[in-house]
Amino acid sequence: MPRSLTSPRLGALALCLATLALDASAAGVVSTPEQREEVALTIYNQNFGLVRELRSLDLGRGPVELEFGEVAATIQPETVHIQSATSPGSLRVLEQNYRYDLLNPQKLLEKYVGRRVKVHRWNEQTGREETRDAEVLAVNGGPILRIDDEITFNYPGRFSFPEVPKNLIAKPSLVWLLESERERQTLEVSYLANQLNWRADYVLSIDESDAVGDLRGWVTLTNQSGASYENARLKLVAGDVQRLAAGYAGQARRDVLAAVEQEAKSQFSEQAFFEYHLYTLERPATLLSNEQKQVTLLEASGIEVAKRLIFHGAPGYYRSAFGHGIPEQKVGVYLDIENRQGNRLGIPLPKGVLRVYKQDEQGARQFIGEDRIDHTPRDERLRVKLGEAFDVVAERKQTDFSVLGHCVSESAWEIEIRNHKDERVEVEVVEPAAGDWQIVRSSHPAVERDAHSFGFELDVPARGSEKIEYRVRVRWC
Q1: Phi/psi at 36 (nearest 5 deg)?
Q2: Angle at 474 between CA 472 and CA 477, to 5 degrees
Q3: Of 55, 157, 299, 300, which has the fewest CB atoms closer than 10 Å, so is most exposed?
Q4: DSSP class of residue 256?
């Protein structure tokens, strides 16, 4: 029985033939970055970015092949989106290709296998350059040529080619087969690209009292995407955006809330964006390929800071007998900063490294420590560790230990803080129990920090010491 002319196989064949015919008749348009009307970058601090371009082009009416040149070499082709900004319904995408077979000497020779080229060789005897016709037979391990009736390799000379093959390009390009209903279109093209990154760095200078500081934040932009972006509208996203293993970015809705009022001066305006924060540079910026650029994020003066000396314990101390003693431990030095408007801040701070400096007696600024901060919302406390105290020493001893039952112990402790400074210091002792705890007795009032930790506040005199003795019962399962 003969097949019906409307069978699925014949229908697919007809569609394929129609597409080939349309491809063959399509005119060709090449677009370069010089035709950009606008470029915008949204860079995420997870080493990727969203590129958005507007280019005005004469496409003509009907089918057209558009080569959209000099896109990022690290583009994710599956994220590309094209539409007409002039008239969204007047443009239809029939096919999209990403061409990344880049022009280089090796590729050019490979494309000319089986074809003829010219080889130019300098003749020292005649003092002239001689030209020979040659057929490229292969390029494996070097070009193999047929010149006249001989086959040769390692032939000294330079090659010249009549043309560049169509499937070789100088830079990565997107190629579309489009159906345009308007002769001139403004196209909006967007895509995600890797190797676009930014990070925040902070410099805090504190005064001689360790109580007031000036803060400056920097944004360091890095572009290794393989493309340049001149006079770009720049936005930075701070937050942990989920990305799938295939490289797709997590989706974020487009709601943008009002900017936060702030006393800190900044070149960026800050906005809440979905569950992240968006920082927009208030002027265009140029980010060239393989360039690193720094832009001021914020400047704030007269910030109140508080120095803390903290001595930390460990949960494992309450589960074993330490007859051999506990090795010498250090007292940590921290700075606390309230990120609130009343403290001349009050803006969301992107994660980054905060470095702290202080002037010595001769007025020279000296580095005193650094720490990595996480994304910090406004009205939250920022705590950074600078190092370990030199003149404040802590010693911990276990004076008794007994097992009361399964996962239950009772232990007695002695902690001595010795201060070798010429002024008094306050030291906070933090004891994480990692379980339910009960102070049986103590020489100093215990402060409940949370359900699984407690602490003590000590005022240690100049060139003196202070000792805590306490007994605690802990259940950890």
Answers
A1: -65, 130
A2: 180
A3: 299
A4: B
Assess contact for 67 and 173: CB atoms under 8 A. Answer: yes
* Other beta carbons within 10 Å of 276: 19
pTM listed for this prediction? 0.72
CA nearest to 202, candidates 369, 31, 442, 67: 369
Taking the C-alpha atoms of residue 344 and residue 262, their distance in angstroms, rounded to an integer, is 8
- Walk along the chain (477 residues) and give the pLDDT tens digit of each residue: 443 334 444 344 333 444 444 444 456 898 988 899 999 999 998 999 999 999 999 999 999 999 898 899 899 988 999 999 988 889 999 998 887 766 778 888 888 899 999 999 998 888 899 999 999 999 988 899 999 989 999 888 899 999 988 777 777 888 899 999 999 999 999 999 999 999 999 999 999 999 999 999 999 999 999 999 999 999 998 877 887 765 433 333 223 222 333 456 667 777 777 777 888 888 899 999 999 999 998 999 999 999 999 999 988 889 888 876 677 789 999 999 999 999 999 988 999 999 999 999 898 999 999 999 999 999 999 999 999 999 999 999 999 999 999 999 999 999 999 999 999 999 999 999 988 999 999 999 999 998 899 999 999 999 999 999 999 999 988
Residues 146, 124 share a domain: yes
Residue 294 included in any domain: no
Helix (H, G, I), strand (E, B) or coil at 7: coil
Spatial separation of the C-alpha atoms in residues 196 and 50, rounded to whole Å: 9
Q: State the Cα–Cα distance between residues 205 and 208, nearest whole angstrom.
A: 10
Q: Which helix (H) or strand (E) holds 111?
A: helix 105-111
Give the Cα separation of 217 and 214 in Å (integer): 10
C-alpha to C-alpha distance for 64 and 51, rounded to whole angstroms = 24
DSSP 376: B
Query: Are 322 and 457 contained in the same domain?
Result: yes
Same-domain pairing of 400 and 340:
yes
DSSP 8-state class, residue 104: -
Residue 3 falls within a domain, yes or no? no
